[in-house]
């Protein structure tokens, strides 16, 4: 009997080890890690996410944000000798050449060009020191108070640091800019520089982010490495209305760890319906007629923890609305909030035709929708 029990225990132990992950679970080699829900801002996972660390070329996320805030894509930049000779990873730009801000931004993010970073900084602020100060100021406006920049490219410098949590929030804000999203999700790009003699030279840039094309739904964002900062990576992925941003700083297994972290986030996602297509949100009453104002489409919020109980819908109906109305005619918007932050917007439209109004008409709430939201807020 004793032998049989031992055998059973041995089999159970063997099964447990067989079921365990082969190597690691959730960024266990990183000095700092964080995964954030890009829609709601909810932190899904973090490990030492408040530790101040150097971030190498993931610095360029904030560089790009600062450039997009302070310049136009078609502006022309003349490349200085200082920019062209910047050390480290390169966009291969030439002193005296002219390039658009747009092309330099692709060289900055795809090729991780330190030279492009300096050229853009000089264009926006005149020099890299003032530009770095602007980067820091913008980061603090976002709420990333454990972040400071000393240069636009991420080369080692005293006082140049961030945290995994700050970098996730910076990236979350950055990804709301469509131009930023377009650049960091691009896998290859052909830029052009006009040399001092008028010759036009093409430059081919390839994105260093291996998750693009290899991880389902990956849409960016930036790699980084220096000897002191180690391997740094910020990634973003979206699936079925959910979007997550993952950050690791000083990691030994960043590609695999990001896959694990993003898998963890997506597997824990639940979609909470904020408004359904055709849902009545208001009534227009005129004489004997009643026209429902309805949601033109549905909207659901991806949540992981308790955020699902903190979703509200604000109905904004135009002050100019007055019958007659045609079915499907836009009459306002529904703004969806989660935790006080707007996460979506849906058109409100007339649910039916309505003839010209009587001298007096009124807009009133939809009783059943109001009751449903009250019950949901109480019971979840």
From TrEMBL:
Single GO biological process annotation from the record: cell wall organization
Annotated EC: 3.4.16.4
UniProt pathway annotation: Cell wall biogenesis; peptidoglycan biosynthesis
InterPro entries reported in the protein's UniProt record: Beta-lactam/transpept-like (IPR012338), Peniciliin-bd_prot_C_sf (IPR015956), Peptidase_S11 (IPR018044), Peptidase_S11_C (IPR012907), Peptidase_S11_C_sf (IPR037167), Peptidase_S11_N (IPR001967)
Entry keyword set: Carboxypeptidase, Cell shape, Cell wall biogenesis/degradation, Hydrolase, Peptidoglycan synthesis, Protease, Signal
Signal peptide: 1-25
Catalytic reactions on record: Preferential cleavage: (Ac)2-L-Lys-D-Ala-|-D-Ala. Also transpeptidation of peptidyl-alanyl moieties that are N-acyl substituents of D-alanine
One Pfam family cited in the UniProt record for this chain: PBP5_C
Functional summary from the UniProt entry: Removes C-terminal D-alanyl residues from sugar-peptide cell wall precursors.
Family classification: Belongs to the peptidase S11 family.
Protein name: serine-type D-Ala-D-Ala carboxypeptidase
Species assigned in the record: Candidatus Ornithomonoglobus merdipullorum
């Amino acid at each position: 009997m004793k032998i049989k029990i031992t055998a059973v225990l041995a089999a159970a132990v063997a099964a447990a080890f067989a079921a365990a992950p082969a190597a690691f679970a959730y960024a266990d080699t990183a000095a700092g890690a964080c995964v954030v829900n890009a829609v709601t801002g909810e932190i899904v996972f973090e490990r030492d996410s408040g530790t101040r660390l150097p971030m190498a070329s993931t610095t360029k996320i904030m560089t790009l944000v600062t450039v997009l805030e302070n310049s136009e894509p078609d502006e022309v930049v003349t490349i200085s000798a200082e920019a062209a000779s910047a050390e480290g990873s390169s966009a291969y730009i030439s002193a005296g050449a002219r390039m658009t801000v747009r092309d330099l931004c692709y060289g900055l993010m795809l090729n991780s060009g330190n030279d492009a970073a300096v050229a853009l900084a000089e264009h926006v602020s005149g020099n890299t020191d003032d530009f770095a100060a602007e980067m820091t100021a913008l980061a603090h406006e976002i709420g990333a108070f454990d972040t400071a920049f000393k240069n636009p490219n991420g080369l080692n410098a005293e006082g140049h640091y961030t945290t995994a949590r700050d970098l996730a929030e910076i990236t979350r804000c950055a990804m709301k800019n469509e131009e930023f999203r377009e650049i960091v999700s691009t896998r290859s790009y052909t830029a052009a520089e006009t040399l001092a003699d008028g010759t036009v030279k093409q430059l081919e840039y390839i994105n260093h982010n291996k998750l693009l094309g290899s991880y389902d739904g990956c849409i960016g964002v930036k790699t980084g490495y220096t000897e002191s900062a180690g391997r740094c990576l910020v990634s973003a992925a979206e699936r079925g209305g959910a979007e997550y941003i993952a950050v690791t700083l000083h990691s030994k297994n960043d590609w695999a760890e990001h896959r694990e972290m993003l898998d963890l986030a997506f597997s824990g996602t639940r979609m909470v319906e904020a408004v359904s297509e055709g849902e009545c949100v208001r009534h227009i009453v005129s004489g004997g007629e009643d026209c429902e104002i309805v949601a033109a489409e549905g909207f659901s919020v991806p949540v992981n923890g308790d955020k699902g109980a903190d979703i509200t819908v604000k109905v904004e109906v135009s002050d100019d609305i007055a019958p007659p109305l045609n079915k499907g005619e836009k009459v306002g918007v529904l703004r969806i909030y989660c935790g006080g932050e707007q996460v979506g917007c849906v058109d409100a439209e007339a649910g039916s035709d309505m003839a010209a109004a009587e001298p007096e008409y009124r807009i009133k709430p939809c009783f059943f929708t109001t009751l449903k939201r009250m019950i949901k807020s109480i019971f979840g």
